[in-house]
Specification:
The chain is 40% helix and 26% strand. By secondary structure, it is α+β, with helices and mostly antiparallel strands. It has one domain (2-133).
């Protein structure tokens, strides 16, 4: 009798734990995809200029996430300046400053829950952005 009363609650908890685990797994996959794209672009100045290559590296890393998209961009600046980074590359810097190049990749995916829970959305948009300095 007690088992019949407690079993539905235990099954509901089990399904909830599985869903949280799946959400965490998808979140890690999106984060790793963004990191893979940024690592590709941070290898050197040639790969930093290859926007399509960074986006392809990110989407290839996140193959198990069906609707994964990635956007990449390169920014440049100079050390010792307060102006920050801009999209104008290469940056012309006055000595003793030197040029800095960064790549930024944003990966986006969608998590679909197995069941429809009251009060919770059935899909959750996931996004992760990685920014790395390019090796020069």
């Amino acid at each position: 009798m007690e088992l019949a009363l407690v079993l539905p609650i235990l099954l509901l908890l089990l399904v909830g734990v599985i869903e949280i685990g799946r959400f965490s797994y998808y979140s890690i996959l999106v984060s790793n995809a963004a990191r893979a794209g940024a690592q590709y672009g941070a290898q050197g100045l040639a790969t930093a200029a290859d926007q399509n290559g960074m986006e392809t590296a990110a989407t290839n890393d996140g193959e198990s996430i069906a609707p994964l998209s990635a956007t990449a961009k390169r920014t440049c600046g100079c050390t010792g300046t307060l102006a920050g980074l801009s999209d104008t590359c290469p940056a012309t810097c006055t000595l003793p400053n030197h040029a800095l190049v960064y790549v930024e990749v944003t990966a986006r995916g969608t998590f679909n829950s197995m069941f429809n829970y009251p009060g919770l959305p059935t899909t959750i948009d996931l996004s992760s952005t990685e920014k790395m300095r390019v090796a020069q």
